[in-house]
Amino acid sequence: SYELTQPPSVSVSPGQTARISCSGDALPQKYVYWYQQKSGQAPVAVIYEDSKRPSGIPERFSGSSSGTMATLTISGAQVEDEADYYCFSTDISGHHRVFGGGTKLAVL
Amino acid sequence: EVQLVESGGGLVKPGGSLRLSCAASGFIFSSYSMNWVRQAPGKGLEWVSSISSAGTYMYYADSVKGRFTISRDNAKNSLYLRMKSLTAEDTAVYFCARDRVPVGETWFDPWGQGTLVTVSS
User: Fold this and answer.
1) Closest Cα of chain A to B28: distance in Å?
2) Of the four, A2, A66, A82, B19, which is 20 to 30 A from A27 by CA?
3) Contact, A72 vs A4, CB < 8 A?
4) For residue B103, what pLDDT is reported?
5) Interatomic CA distance for residues A74 and B34, integer angstroms
6) pLDDT score for B14
7) pLDDT, tens digit, for every residue of A2-26?
């Protein structure tokens, strides 16, 4: 079955740039989406269609995708950005959705 | 206000069955594909199943195929997940989520608050 691969953890100091990667064989043909999940809460999308930001998401969140790798970038990370981040996409058929394993972002 | 409310979770013995429900409101339910996602305690998100707007097409993760059945009742604005042959690995919070847009490649939004399923003897 199709998989998306993320690093388990990323750590930055406040104000630094955090980058979280996501790799998958179908990413050249399929969009990637990024979710933020804080403890005990439902996930919230922070990036859709590779690089678009939903309304209400701060400008410091940005996304890019090239070949089989997508990247979520948080420029000037804040303490409140500490959360688990998941990439999300579909397999090449478009019928099976998949989440990456998740990346725990520490801002300290 | 768009809202999804799951129910039906609880404690079930290994090998048992359970049916989850998701009540939708605030949008034209019959226009959107719907989905189930689960999250085991301390683990990541796992897509479980999706169903098309009319209920014609259903898709499942390999981990649940043959044991879980997704369905919907558009007249009742409700989504269901019938689960059987449950094991401890099915213990998770189960979220109901709507496709963000009615047509095309999209993401899940909004999400419900989740309902906890615990499989234990």
Assistant:
1) 21
2) A82
3) no
4) 85
5) 30
6) 98
7) 999 999 999 999 999 999 999 999 9
pLDDT at B29: 98
| Spans of chain A, pLDDT less than 70 | none
How far apart CA A38 and CA A104 sit, in angstroms, is: 10
Residue from B18, B17, B21 nearest B5 by CA: B21
Nearest CA in chain B to A101: B44
Position B104 confidence tier, pLDDT thresholds 50, 70, 90: confident
Type and span of the H or E element at B74:
none
On the question of a cis peptide bond just before residue B110, with omega within 30 degrees of 0, the verdict is: yes
- Residue A48 backbone dihedrals phi, psi, to 5 degrees: -130, 160
CB B33 within 8 A of CB B56: no
What is the Cα–Cα distance from B64 to B20, expressed in whole angstroms? 14
Contact state of A45 with B46 under an 8 Å Cβ cutoff:
no
Do A96 and B59 count as a contact with CB atoms less than 8 A apart?
A: yes
**Across the A/B interface, how many CB contacts are shorter than 8 Å?**
52
Identify the pLDDT of residue B105. 82
The answer to whether the CB atoms of A45 and B61 lie below 8 A apart is no
Separation in Å, CA of A33 to nearest CA in chain B: 7
- Are the beta carbons of B45 and A37 separated by less than 8 Å? yes
Q: What is the pLDDT of residues B7-37, one digit of tens each?
A: 999 999 999 999 999 999 999 999 999 999 9
